[in-house]
């Protein structure tokens, strides 16, 4: 799933590519992707792109006073096309294409486009056409952005206190608590902070909160810097190649050399290093019959 660093890089890339271009057409290939009806999708056609920004994991294309907002969900992605076919895509079918945005350059008469795709059979990608980003419920409910200057140690302390006995992993992933962190980077920053994913949020003392805050800022900032300027087609590979524990089950921890372990859930999993994060004690997988603390 694209998370804050990848969405930030996509936003920067799109801002440069779309500057001064006109959205000449938007072809909806997967009707389930469009989550709004007023304004209609056609309202953005013929308008100049005014800017591209990020809200958590949402990409916001501002055009003609309207916001075309995309959430890539678990398996969505955006691909740039230097040329677009003359024939619009056929709705339905087995193609991963969900939306095609056709763009015109008024200065050169060149026509290019964005293909917004979604792999797999579980379709969660979402497209919104709204007058204000706050009209999208997911954006209105977002917690603070962890890279914003307003995200201080005190803000994190209050978040953890309010979360009570909830597990750190879940608190960090909850978009209404902190915006932009998903399954992969929650594993990564907990590894950097040397904390168990199952630690109760409110149990951290002041020093531990400061350590977690530093890990959040450092891990995400480093990932954003690495991704900046990387081509859209290479962002996924860049992310995977620089992860320390997420998706690395059975491999050596880059810090201590211990084996990276996994805990599986119904529709996801987490990875961690027992030596670095849990005092050497493995956390029992949901597939086993008991939980080891």
TrEMBL record:
E.C. number(s) listed in UniProt: 3.2.2.23, 4.2.99.18
Domain of life: Bacteria
GO biological process: base-excision repair
Domain Formamidopyrimidine-DNA glycosylase catalytic: 2-93
UniProt cross-references to InterPro entries, sorted A to Z: FPG_cat, FPG_N, H2TH_FPG, Ribosomal_uS13-like_H2TH, Znf_DNA_glyclase/AP_lyase, Znf_FPG/IleRS
Cofactor(s) essential for the protein: Zn(2+)
CDD domains hit by this protein: BaFpgNei_N_1 (cd08973)
Domain FPG-type: 244-278
Assigned keywords, A-Z: DNA damage, DNA repair, DNA-binding, Glycosidase, Hydrolase, Lyase, Metal-binding, Multifunctional enzyme, Zinc, Zinc-finger
One Pfam assignment: Fapy_DNA_glyco
Molecular function per GO: 8-oxo-7,8-dihydroguanine DNA N-glycosylase activity; class I DNA-(apurinic or apyrimidinic site) endonuclease activity; damaged DNA binding; zinc ion binding
Swiss-Prot/TrEMBL catalytic activity: Hydrolysis of DNA containing ring-opened 7-methylguanine residues, releasing 2,6-diamino-4-hydroxy-5-(N-methyl)formamidopyrimidine
Family named by the database record: Belongs to the FPG family.
Name of the protein in its database record: Formamidopyrimidine-DNA glycosylase
Source organism: Nocardioides daedukensis
